[in-house]
Sequence to fold (54 residues):
Amino acid sequence: MTKVLSLLIVAAMVLHLIRPLGLPGLRHRRDAWKLAVLALAAMAVTVGLSHMRG
Fold:
């Protein structure tokens, strides 16, 4: 699950650098760092949930 999530986030970051996504808070190319922060948070939640179950 974490590999798929990381690939999706990297793809979104590359697309955002080519052409900004236009979402609120992501209207400029310089906002790509926000996707990186979102990726770190999503990975932390995913890993945390996987360790809680097993």
Q: What stands out?
A: The chain has a mean pLDDT of 83.
